[in-house]
Amino acid sequence: MWKGVIETYRRYLPVSDKTPVITMLEGNTPLIEAKNLSKYLCSGRACSALRIFLKYEGLNPTGSFKDRGMTLAISKVKEEGFKAVICASTGNTSASAAAYSARAGLKCIVLIPKGSIALGKLSQALIHGAQVIAVNGNFDQALEVVREITQKYPVAVVNSINPYRIEGQKTASFEICDVLGKAPDFQVMPVGNAGNITAYWKGYKEYRKIGKISRLPKMCGFQASGSAPIVKGHPIKNPHTIATAIKIGNPASWKYAEAARDESGGLIDSVTDKEIISAYKLLASLEGVFAEPASAASIAGLIKLVKRGYFVRRASCVVRRPTIVCILTGHGLKDPDRAIASVRSPAVVEPKLDKVMKVIKI
Ligand code: F0G
Question: What are the residue ranges of helices labelled H in 56-113?
Fold first, then answer.
């Protein structure tokens, strides 16, 4: 039986017998082969041999990858005796922090950028009893306030500047390697505050060090073009994108993300909102997998790189059929408004056979 990421990967994590494990059996998310997407992307191109997998992190208990880091962060907060936690969030961190805090009996305070978080995420933070404060500003400003509060008051920060968050999140690379029996050749993922790319890269490097894998993947991160500080090389004061989860102008783990890119020989690039929405719909319609817009930045990035011939050029010549893992960080149901706004509304008809059949047209 699956026991959650702490028990499963205990020997690679900073826990002891004294750590009270707060878990909802997160992790063990499926690595789904995307054969339809691969066929769609590669027909007529020289890349017909790509193997594309989706790491569906939206199937964690609160619907995003944050649970991997939160189980460890909250367990350590309990061990260290704090009574309250705080985070700034574009939504998913707050949902996860609120849920794990509820389970641990901790007070949870979350600062969110007013008007910029998806409905599902807000509902989660509220129902789990967090104190939700909307700030008249963006995520970066909210995180600044959180940093100040934790320097002055006995409240533990559970953003990814808390190293336990990164430790917990690195378990996703372990899972990918355990399933594939090796590391993928490429990993494609969204980048916001840059904690996740930092965590994956740490995980892969640790697995290689202990001989579980022999080669490392090339890390390909994607930011939204209106919120792409790493790509542009400077902080963005007023970031914008429909992918609210990654609407971040000054990522806390900026340097680590650059290190992951450079050490792996990968890249960090950007995709437009238009590309994100089209990838979002393509993924849902071709693979039956519903991921939130920020997660679709992975797929938009994948498409961009396939078009450029990147994978074929960058795969070493010993690799005949490069394996690519795209990380789908959050569930599509987190942001139902965006889904509805992206497709045609349902037809409205009288409850009569002929009226319905007129619309069905078979
Ligand atoms: N995808 C989703 C769905 C996210 O919620 C986030 C970050 C990211 C990607 C980017 O990950 O920040 O580690 O580079 N969400 C944070 C939050 C910022 O507050 O929920 P990152």
Answer: 66-80, 92-104
